[in-house]
Amino acid sequence: VHLVESGGGLVQPGGSLRISCAASGFTFSSYAMRWYRRAPGKEREFVAFISASGDDTSYPDSVKGRFAISRDNAKNTVYLQMNSLKLEDTAVYYCFAKNSWGQGTQVIVSS
Q1: Which of 20, 48, 64, 79 could form a disulfide with 35 if both were Cys (CB 3.0 to 4.6 A apart)?
Q2: CA 84 from chain center: how many Å?
Q3: What is the Cα–Cα distance from 108 to 89, expressed in whole angstroms?
Q4: Whole-angstrom Cα distance, residue 52 to residue 30?
């Protein structure tokens, strides 16, 4: 299993960013995917879930209505669209599938 996140960066509060996770080494379309994040000094936090088909998604209250997870099974890629970003969204964002983690992509929300 190989997961590679990309698309992180610096964004102002209220801004938007889309991060991606390219997957390989397994049958991507057969597995649910998840995003987590770890903010400085905090424990890792669940951010988003998407089923294998993409029909079902779920989010914690902290990001519900602002973040949207999606997937392209033809490209073996899962996305996280983040809107109305807040300072507290600053974290390293990780992709998770089949008990494996990517290396993470840094998102910094700052004015």
Answers
A1: 48
A2: 15
A3: 8
A4: 5
CB neighbours of residue 1 within 10 Å: 14
Mean pLDDT over residues 5-23, rounded?
98
Strand ranges (E), the chain: 2-6, 9-11, 17-24, 33-38, 45-50, 57-58, 67-72, 77-82, 91-97, 100-101, 105-109
Which of left, alpha, beta for 20 (phi over 0: left; psi -120 to 50: alpha)?
Answer: beta
CB contact at 8 A, 13 and 111: yes
Q: Do the beta carbons of residue 81 and residue 63 sit within 8 Å?
A: no
| Strand, helix or coil for residue 67 | strand
3-state secondary structure of 26: coil
Interval 15-73: pLDDT, tens = 999 999 999 999 999 999 999 999 999 999 999 999 999 999 999 999 999 999 999 99
